[in-house]
Design brief:
Length: about 775
Amino acid sequence: MATTLLSLLGAAALAGRASAVCSRGGCIADSCARAVRFDTTLVPSASRVADCSSFLEVTATPSASTVWVTEDLAAATVTVTSELVQVERRQVTAQSASPANTIPAYASACSVASRYSSACSCFGVTGATVTAATPVVTSTTTVATTVTEVDYESPPLASSSVVFPSDDSWTATYTYSEYTLPVFTSAPDPTIDITYPTPSTTCLLDATPTGDSFYLLAPSAGYMFKRDSGLGPVDPPADEAAAEALMANWNPPTFEFQVAQDAAPGLFDLVVHDGTDSALYVALDVTSGEVTLVSSSTNGQVQDGRCTTVFGVSCKGSLIVEYGSTSYVWTATNSSTIATPGTPPANNTTPLNTMVLLPTRLATPFSLNATVSKRRSSRRALFKRDHSQDGVAPRCPGFPYGTVYAASNGVSPSPPNGCGPDGEWYSSLIPNLDFGGCCNSHDTCYDTCSEWFEDCNDKFHSCMLDTCASKYDHWYNFFLRPGCEAAADLYYWAVTGETAQSHFQSGSKAECSCNCADGNSAVCTPGGICQKVRGPGANDSGNCGGCGRNCGPKAHCQDGNCVCNPAPPTPDQCGSLCLDFMTHPRNCGGCGNVCASGYCYEGACFTPPAHPDQCYPVDAVRNGDFSNGTAFWTTVGAELAEAVSGSVPLPTISGNPPPSYLVIFMDWSTEAVISQTVRMCPGVQYQLDFLAAAARTFGFTITLGGQVVVDHSPISNTGGWFSQGPFDLPVLAAGEAGTTQGDDFFLETELAIHAQGPDVSVDMIGLGAISIHTI
């Protein structure tokens, strides 16, 4: 059946065709073609050739020529003041051409004139053009010759009619400028590279004489009190009344380090204050390991088998007990404490009765009647932050507040492991308590990009305090709750330190990405900040519409799009082309006004003389915009090639097509070629450019006179029409291979554009605005 453009651009383009179309040399072998080419004996008829010639004959009637006869009256002189007015370009009336014949009866299968004309053309018949006589109209006008002196208040009035120079020598130095705005492919914004500062070191306790006071406790036994001649936990209450009395008067003693004479480096006296006027010193029996209280410092010496200057603390808060070269582990018993030679066990295996210290400034105030949630809510309110730039360990540091946010980058975090190896920076401080579930939640919070450092730690602290409240909720064990909460306070302090900050931020770097809060912004330079690259206010010509998108020397960025510079030489714009309407031969006086001569003078097209004495380098391509169908063009290898109006969009291709263009439909064909004989002046540098669109990614190869000038340049299926070129063409010389001498000093040679694509069904490309012009 017959194949039409509408069927090819419609359902066939999307779903394939149900039947094949026989074609040869770009002509469709349908019923119309058969009626024209053959009679009943399948022999071409001479009469049919004559009918085609007659039908294709065109009578051209030139525009009327007006002869003006002017009668002059007396001259006069006047002076006027002129204001600059808007000038419109002159209008030129083209000659009209009209066919005059009808379709023969035997070709009734050719339903419209275009089908009959196409069939005749495929028959090899060409039509002649008959030029009628030029009508002449004589008009007489009487005018008074006036000499006018003009006083301009603004720039001189532009002429409403361009007067070309009488000497055509200006064409020898004729130049014009154009600049194609860059076309950018879609690409994601660069990943923001975050550099985290090194956290400052903060020690748990200052051991100097003016340092912190602290409590001593064992997590399983609670706070240490003064017991007889030593230290130990309180006795369990005998009944509920005793428990209430104990907790109502809860006031554990505080301790501090003091510098002693003859002390070993890093070791101090440990002084206890129980509310009385006298201070007592904690002493170690260097033989038995018993820990007792004495009234004065031994100043680094052993007196009566005891030494007071044996205590210290690490920056991270680990309690140190040393005498000479011997280290001790200090633990609590039911009623006292004892120091045993040795080193603390590995993380998470430290006995629950090991002595630890808690600075008084970190301890949660204990109240018999207050609930954990009420006491913690006031502290958490101080850290109510909800942005990745907040706190001492922000996920996205170094940016103005509110300009970035953190989101998952798709990397799966490590599974939570309780208070295990990843938590060793805090579990080394104190023995492992029943906080495993809280530690798991804390791990998960650190790995959640929308969470922030302080809030994760606050939730962790609250979880531990709730665990203590749940575990020690009866009168007979309630006295152990303060010790459990003290351990929770120590854990909480540990996860606020520099080691925890480093863990938090290293997890952020591995599992989170920082993004500009404004979707139209990006960080385009390392160490830079978020800047507008898209939308209103995006005016960086080096990052226009995205990072690295440079508008070039003759354009600038306006609201994320490259636009032409307003100053010469390219003050005007047609699509993606920057140019000057005053001189551009393909947009002379306005977009789309093509000068056949290739010369634009002050916004008007210049027409060379009928019998030139030199070669005028007009546009070498005829009908490059396909406004006259496929005239002058030959197509090979295409299923269908047809010129269509720009109002007919190509399926799957967006954007604004040119006013008319050639659509090439390819079905299981890897190459289609369009060609024509072009006319070029010898010794002149030309360039080739055109518009193209494709449903798939194609390549094209361009030859001139058989010589490859562009080798498989890609046409991307980016969904729109884009400029291709300009491509420099070789300068031709008279007698050069592949050329012939034509009329008016032109050299004639063949231009061929080879469209090359995948061997698939239902493919199409569009070509338009093909031009070979001078530089």
